[in-house]
Write a structure and sequence with these properties.
Helix content is 8%, strand content 52%. The chain contains three helices and 26 strands. The strands form five sheets. Strands 16, 17, 18, 19, 20, 21, 22, 23, 24, 25 and 26 form an eleven-stranded antiparallel beta sheet that branches. It is elongated. 21% of the residues are buried.
């Protein structure tokens, strides 16, 4: 019996020693049970729909979180199997904005960022313009990461936009009367407008001969000069002449409501009875009797306007509005002794009460 017990103890010890000699290992499975396969959630300002596709052994959920300070949720997420559809609306801001999609499944969580760009637009040039009476189409190129929106204030101007061009269609002006319309545009929060004036001086009967009436301030003498308004490729010109002595050609602006004469520009010559030609500059002066330097004459910039209207008999009349100027300011044609304009002016014609009447 003692031998039998001893045998059992030996077998048990051998088995224990054998089991202790074997290496034991416990393997941990670190493979994620939820992972993103693909995602397309970066949007331009016009918005749209993107998606996130995941792999997961169980059903998933998706929730939108946002970093917007106002707490606004500006995108939506809907689950369709293992795909999350993300929809973003239009955005008018200039700064990019971000949101976050929290995806859960198989006891795991993932975060996927959503990015929407703000408006990016290069400088857009669309200035006020005067156009002729025939129908025409105007195109304005622009570069932006969002589609331009545009509208017109009148029915004879229609607008349309593509992703790089604003097209403006102007109908024929069959009435031949002066008319204006405004085009407003915007790309998100960036916006502007420009005015189109449809007018043709020839159709309106403004081109041709006029009479220039005025008084010379220093002598109170009334003057009447022959005037001719003409048009060429460079624009409009008002030519003033008087008995072969005055020979002034003034570049003017004309928009159907006013004639504008630029200050500080050379206008031509005046020939005296002795045959001397003096170069003249149309300008604005402060003292009607004190000669000024040429630099002072051309330093006066801007325009002097004549309001255009028809009188009771239907004749065009252009009247200068002096109300915008002080009593110490005068319109003048300043003369110098030579084309080099050295020294102070040595002659002048200072006018008031200027008006023109169409012949």
């Amino acid at each position: 019996m003692k031998k039998y017990i001893g045998f059992l103890l030996c077998v048990s010890a051998a088995l224990f020693a054998a089991s202790c000699g074997e290496k034991q290992s416990l393997e941990v499975d670190n493979t994620p049970k939820l992972k993103v396969v693909s995602h397309d959630v970066v949007f331009q300002p016009d918005g749209g729909t993107g998606s996130i596709t995941v792999e997961c052994e169980s059903a998933i959920t998706a929730e939108v979180q946002t970093t917007n300070a106002a707490g606004e949720k500006w995108c939506t997420a809907t689950v369709e199997g293992k795909k999350i559809n993300v929809t973003v609306g239009k955005y008018s801001g200039v700064e990019s904005r971000y949101s976050n999609i929290v995806i859960k499944g198989a006891d795991e969580t993932l975060n996927v960022a959503v990015h929407q760009y703000g408006i990016i637009m290069n400088e857009f040039e669309a200035d006020d313009a005067i156009i002729k009476n025939p129908a025409q189409t105007l195109s304005y190129a622009y570069s932006a990461n969002a589609l331009m929106q545009a509208s017109s204030s009148v029915d004879w101007i229609t607008v349309s936009t593509t992703d790089n061009k604003l097209q403006v269609n102007v109908a024929e002006n069959t009435s031949k009367e002066y008319r204006q319309g405004t085009v407003e545009w915007n790309v998100g929060m960036l916006k502007g407008s420009f005015v189109l004036t449809q007018f043709d001086a020839a159709d309106a009967g403004l081109l041709g001969e006029w009479t220039w009436n005025c008084k010379q301030v220093t002598t109170n003498k009334a003057y009447e000069l022959d005037a001719v308004l003409s048009e060429d490729e460079s624009g409009y010109t008002l030519k003033l002449t008087k008995d072969g002595s005055a020979d002034f050609s003034i570049p003017v602006l004309l928009d159907g409501k006013k004639i504008s004469m630029p200050l500080g520009v050379a206008v031509g010559t005046y020939t005296t009875s002795s045959g001397t030609k003096y170069p003249y500059t149309f300008t604005m002066i402060v003292n009607k009797t004190t000669a000024i330097a040429y630099e002072a004459a051309i330093a006066n910039t801007g325009y002097y306007d004549f309001d255009l209207a028809k009188d009771e008999s239907g004749v065009w009349v252009a009247t200068a509005d002096h109300s915008a100027y002080t009593a110490k300011q005068y319109l003048a044609f300043e003369a110098w002794s030579s084309a080099e304009h050295e020294g102070n002016s040595n002659g002048r014609l200072v006018f008031s009460g200027i008006s023109m009447t169409k012949k």
